[in-house]
Give the backbone structure.
Amino acid sequence: ISYQSIIGFGGAFTESAGFCYSKLSNEKKSDLLKCYFSSEGLNYSMGRLPIGSSDFSLKSYSYSKKSDLSDFNIDKDKEYILPFLQAALSKRGLKLLASPWSPPSFMKTTKMLTLGGKLANKYKQTWADYLVKYIKSYKNEGIHINYMTVQNEPNAIQTWESCLYSPQEEASFATNYLYYTFVKEK
């Protein structure tokens, strides 16, 4: 009996993984890429990307601190995440899944990236715009993201970046805000 399809196996391109990769010699970088992304190794075909900082970041950050998103940029990812991802992509094509751990603190009921909290109602459209800007920014770097989740661990209050959603809240945000924003910005 088949209950689901497996579309691939892989790992995460986090800031800490990229930082560790950056410290390797060129020879060790080549070995690592071969071990993970070649048929001689694990042959990973997928990668997961955090949208903003996560529990595997060197410090907490967001891509914007302004409610109009006029300061939005992915410069922080260009330091460690993108070089590691681009090196892996040079070895083989990967399907990419992106997940946010938390909206920027100004969008949350707690005004904190960490310790849960919820997306404030007045920022639902801004959050959708932010997520679309993320996808477009990566596309401008030559990276196609295939899949996105609404929230990493939506029912967990963590000491690191987190945000709470009920299943109904996730579905409502995805269908009433995120979907239409992607359609509009396509």
Q: What stands out?
A: Strands lie at 10-12, 46-51, 95-100, 147-148.
